[in-house]
């Protein structure tokens, strides 16, 4: 069954709204997870910032790599789950 242009536009609009919400959710989840992982691994509450000259270069780079990996993993998992849910509820494929 073919969808009209209006239905397609509505679906794209809904998908964009869902993606925005999922992006915010994944960012919040990843930030919380990174904070817990960093505290567990380093024993320090706050991860170093790149411009924090009181922390070593290795520590800053390790923190950045771990943070990037966690953010990427959480973003992919949340967006994948959202896409599956969207497809299941609407029947729309990307």
Characteristics of this structure?
94 residues; mainly alpha; 2 helices
Summarize the structure.
With 94 residues, the protein is mainly alpha-helical. It is built from 2 helices and no strands. Helix 1 (5-42) runs antiparallel to helix 2.
Topology pattern, helix = H, strand = E: HH
Please, how many helices? 2
SS class: mainly alpha
Number of strands: 0
Shape: elongated
- Portion of residues within helices: over 70%
Proportion of beta-strand residues = under 5%
Averaged pLDDT, please?
Answer: 86
- Radius of gyration of CA atoms, rounded to a whole number: 19 Å
Major sheet attributes: none
Task: Please describe what this structure looks like.
The protein has 94 residues and is mainly α. It has two helices and no strands. Helix 1 (5-42) packs antiparallel against helix 2. The longest helix has 38 residues, at 5-42. The protein starts with a helix and ends with a helix. The mean pLDDT is 86.
Write the layout of secondary structure elements.
Elements: H1 5-42, H2 57-90
Helix pairs in contact: 1-2
